[in-house]
Amino acid sequence: MIRISQLKLPVSHTKEQLEKKIGKVLKSPSASFSYEIRKQSLDCRHKNDKMFVYTIDVKIKDEQKIAKRVNNNNVMLTAEKPYVFPEPGQEPLSCPPVVIGSGPAGLFCGWYLAKAGYKPLILERGEEADKRQKTVENFWKNGILDPDSNVQFGEGGAGTFSDGKLNTLVKDPYGRNHEVLKRFVEAGAPEEILYQQKPHLGTDVLIGIVEKMRHDIEAMGGSFRFRAKVTDLRFEKGVLKEIQVNDREIIPAQVCVLAVGHSARDTFEMLYRRGLYMEPKAFAVGLRIEHPQSMINMDLYGEEENEFLGAAAYKVTHKCENGRGVYSFCMCPGGYVVNASSEPGRLAVNGMSYQARDSRNANSAMIVTVTPEDFGGEGPLRGVEFQRELERKAWELGQGKIPVQLFGDYCKNQSSTALGEVVPCMKGEYVLANVRSVLPKAVGDSIEEGVRSFGKRITGFDREDALLSGVESRTSSPVRITRDSELLSNIQGVYPCGEGAGYAGGITSAAMDGIKIAETISKKYRNF
Ligand code: FAD
């Protein structure tokens, strides 16, 4: 196979133009070949000449000869390295592995275990995706929160009502990242996600995908139970024996995967009481900011709209004078700010979008890292208490509605009383307020400094009527459930996994961690 990199074409190019260019680069214009796009990135440095830059793998006759003949640093021979799932091990299993949580980590772990013949049982505290969707929409409309089925909990996990960004910075020598993308495509995602630099799915697509993956797991011998909250784990001499569901039912268990996500605070408390080793972990808190998407497009593309490129994304960071870093996170082009709460009397926001990314506004979190020194209190769960306190203040400020403030008022530390030109795109009711009052001073000051500095890079970012809403507190896990070299917790049979355990951040890395745990179980245990 020949790999061509740095192949550039205008963003409006056709398939025929791409194929012609491949033939030209290989100096084989009339030869027949097959090809696979491996990567597509966008070069917007010249606003009037925006280009896609490709990496492409080509299969063609006489590859060695051609590669030598073209004598081009961007053309080289390469070999395919397929992903390999390990063969089953020898240790017998008395009962199927139990996966706790059906977020990306649990779902992908379950899929690979089912495919390898382990018949996993997946326990999920929330509802199936279609029922969950109705429950979530009812919450956004009427404010009635279901603490077990909401934006954080239910089939597909925290990522279901999201922008579905799939890029990750996790290094991947084993090919798990590509596996995740392939599984998504098989389950209904568009093929482009396999090569786009910043692939995304959108809530409308994600709901169908998680349902399809569930059906596939069931067809391969796995099973699901919804409204099945794990309320206790029972051990004997440091070995897992039983799992308690919904405070009453007992399930015998030899292996369980703890893929409970970063918001399962009650579950963290139970695990702590049960003696699982865990430690507090730094994470980040702040607010969401909204701007007109046309303003962001203008900055990146030099035009308010581009039919080939869709809504533009940005990523910004700033080091503050107080030494803290402030940065954009989970940016949702053409998206919505959502009420993403999961506990009564506490309010957290996040961002989502649909596949089309066609709302009026761009939003992203403006967040600042906080460390165990900021949390106060004691014990490994003190980060959870820190989050809870911020969320309690946000809830009280808006009496359950999302508190919103204009950036101009934020800088004056005063409540907003009227919107400017930017009108919120929100899922859930909102109310104008002084959101800054919710934040610790250092975080509030850092965000002001950060937004002003981002205004120097993106025209209008620091406009007076940009909207801030809060509180953004569920950026990553406030705790790490430690695992050893065999990826086990201190309890034999219990595998911490995904974002909640502190080993992933985002949909793709959580899914990759799920695959990694499935591989580990497979290497050790015999299948059925
Ligand atoms: P989770 O997805 O949190 O899944 C954990 C599951 O465990 C949940 O379904 C929960 O109900 C279940 N559970 C918890 N406790 C129990 C229990 N005791 N018993 C049974 N089940 C239990 N990431 C991105 O990469 N891109 C994005 O665009 C993006 N946007 C987001 C938008 C929103 C609104 C939110 C909330 C998150 C977003 N994220 C995004 C983050 C992403 O969703 C998470 O990183 C990812 O879902 C973590 O996967 P996970 O499987 O580890 O945990």
UniProtKB/TrEMBL annotation:
Taxonomic lineage: Bacteria, Bacillati, Bacillota, Clostridia, Lachnospirales
Segments forming domain FAD-dependent protein C-terminal: 282-475
A Pfam family hit: FAD-depend_C
Organism of origin: Blautia difficilis
Tree of life domain: Bacteria
Protein name, entry field: NAD(P)-binding protein
UniProt-listed InterPro entries: FAD-binding_protein, FAD-depend_C, FAD/NAD-bd_sf
